Automatic annotation (TrEMBL):
SMART domains: AAA
Lineage of the species this protein comes from: Bacteria, Bacillati, Actinomycetota, Actinomycetes, Micrococcales
SUPFAM superfamilies from the UniProt entry: P-loop containing nucleoside triphosphate hydrolases, Ribosomal protein S5 domain 2-like
GO molecular function, one term: ATP binding
Name of the protein: AAA+ ATPase domain-containing protein
Signal sequence, renumbered to the chain: none
Gene3D superfamilies associated with the record: 3.30.230.10, P-loop containing nucleotide triphosphate hydrolases
InterPro entries: AAA+_ATPase, CHLI-like, Mg_chelat-rel, Mg_chelat-rel_C, Mg_chelatse_chII-like_cat_dom, P-loop_NTPase, Ribosomal_Su5_D2-typ_SF, Ribsml_uS5_D2-typ_fold_subgr
Length: 505
């Protein structure tokens, strides 16, 4: 299986033996790792007791026009050569998927991308797949295809010799239904005070909105962001498999193939490159942090410290829910529908809030620092909240609501959104197009949107910001149990977007 993003294509491995000078050639656009397969295959076959004949061996990976990347073709190449030499029956292995890297001792080693490869193989109609033992549990998640995990090339040769086609092989005991888990995350009860920020977090989780938390160091911005996944709805099995497929491409999966129903939380370092954020690499294109956060949260701590091109690269996936990486020979699309949470200090030194008595930054330096999050990127962030430093009165002897209590309200608000938008194909308020909220049956009366209309007229909001504030108002109304937003809901939404408390009046 040759993978392009999460999409696959079956590759037929052809082998021919001829009585010329001994050699082993692999053709069909292999990359550097795949071109090195001959030496691994030769040593592995010798270790398995079936040394390759002293002949010229030509292996073709068809279709030859599709690039082949990685070491996962080793096992297929070895079986094709052994079939050409009549060591195993050609008719037994012709329609079987073989995936795995070969060690010099004949061991079959795990490779990344097993889950998306097996998903495609099942959809293409293949009934059997031979995979490394370490990838067996992950591959076993896919229904409709029988998985045969193996430890050594000798296991494959022996099974073909003793039993014939894989449908006659004994059922492997190691392939069981994947365990379903929910990982442990922090609790919102750990947050002292910060009532406005907690409301913003709850709104973000309820409607799928993006969030900016700004404030001095130690105010709790990172703690708040880390607890968002604890109040988000659990992933559906299909979504969990899609998330696990992305992790598989990144080589970041568990040996037990467990399905984690907790939404992912990805927090890349502020020194991350453009390829690390959106995906890329050469020659193999791998998903980046935005795809790893699919169906979950992408958290950028110290957001102004990220490179400008890295921050601006988020604009396209925020709008479309996917990231497209174009190369001369291929175009790869990865899913990237995530919630963005940004955290920022008020200035480079971090002490520029309040009276700023400890701040050592010049006005110009503060302006340049703040400008890194201005413009089109910040216009796509629905909630922009200042997180004040916690005072002693708020920190001692006070506890906020637990995550399970907030999660129940989030689930109810999301249920209301699904009941309203489900028939139109949307599940969250953040997914609803702006014209739907401004025109037609869901348009709000002028008396309700008066503050919002004034902000648009005076240039405090763009039309994109207007639409995003409307979506936030619907989410605030859902949390309050109201069928339609009121002027208060619109005012709160506008305040939480612009930090303008007069909007509520």
């Amino acid at each position: 299986m040759a993978l392009t993003g999460l999409d696959g294509r079956s590759v037929q491995v052809e082998a021919q033996l001829s009585s010329a000078l001994p050699s082993l050639i692999v053709s069909g656009l292999p990359d550097a790792a795949c071109r090195q397969a001959p030496e691994r295959v030769r040593a592995a076959c010798a270790s398995a007791g079936s040394p390759l004949p002293a002949k010229k061996i030509v292996v073709n990976l068809s279709p030859a026009s599709v690039p082949k990347s990685g070491t996962g073709f080793d096992l297929g190449i070895a079986v094709a050569i052994l079939a050409a030499g009549s060591v195993v029956g050609q008719e037994h292995c012709a329609d079987v998927v073989h995936l795995g890297e070969l060690g010099l001792d004949g061991s079959v080693r795990g490779v990344p991308g097993i889950l998306p490869a097996i998903r495609y193989a099942a959809s293409a109609g293949f009934a059997h797949a031979i995979v490394p033992l370490t990838n067996g549990a992950e591959a076993g998640i896919v229904e409709g295809i029988r998985i045969h995990p193996v430890r050594h090339l000798d296991d494959v040769i022996g099974a073909y010799r003793d039993f014939g086609p894989p449908q006659r092989w004994p059922a492997p005991l190691s392939v069981l239904p994947p365990p379903v888990i929910t990982r442990s995350v922090g609790d919102l009860a750990d947050i002292a005070g910060q009532h406005e920020a907690r409301l913003a977090v709850e709104l973000a989780a309820s409607g799928g909105h993006h969030l900016l938390l700004s404030g001095p160091p130690g105010a709790g911005k990172t703690m708040l962001a880390e607890r968002v996944v604890g109040i988000l709805p659990r992933l559906t099995p299909d979504a969990a498999i899609e998330v696990l497929s992305i992790r598989s491409l990144r080589g970041d999966t568990q040996d037990d193939g467990s399905l984690d129903l907790t939404p992912p939380f990805i927090a890349p370092h502020h020194g991350s490159s453009l390829a690390a954020m959106v995906g890329g690499g050469s020659p193999v294109i791998r998903p980046g942090a935005v795809s790893a956060a699919h169906c979950g949260v992408l958290f950028l701590d110290e957001a102004p410290e990220f490179r400008s091109d890295v921050l601006q690269s988020l604009r396209q996936p925020l709008e479309s829910g996917e990231v497209v990486i174009a190369r001369a020979r291929e175009r790869v699309t990865f899913p990237a529908r995530f919630q963005l949470i940004l955290a920022a200090n008020p200035c480079p030194c971090g002490f520029g809030s309040g009276k700023a008595l400890r701040c050592s930054c010049t006005p110009q330096r503060r302006r340049l620092y703040a400008a890194r999050l201005r413009g089109p990127l910040l216009d796509r962030v629905d909630l922009q909240v200042h997180v004040s430093a916690v005072t002693q009165a708020r920190a001692i002897g006070t506890h906020g609501e637990a995550s399970r209590v907030v999660a129940d309200r989030v689930a109810s608000a999301r249920g209301a959104a699904v009941a309203r938008w489900g028939g139109h194909g949307w599940a969250r308020n953040a997914d609803v197009p702006g014209p739907v909220l401004r025109i037609g049956e869901f348009a709000l009366p002028k008396a309700v949107t008066a503050a919002l209309d004034l902000a648009l007229e005076t240039g405090r909001l763009t039309l994109r910001g207007y639409d995003r504030t409307l979506r936030l108002a619907w989410t605030h109304a859902d949390l309050a149990g109201r069928g339609r937003p009121t002027a208060e809901d619109v005012g709160v939404a506008l305040m939480l977007r612009t930090n303008d408390r007069e909007a509520v009046a």
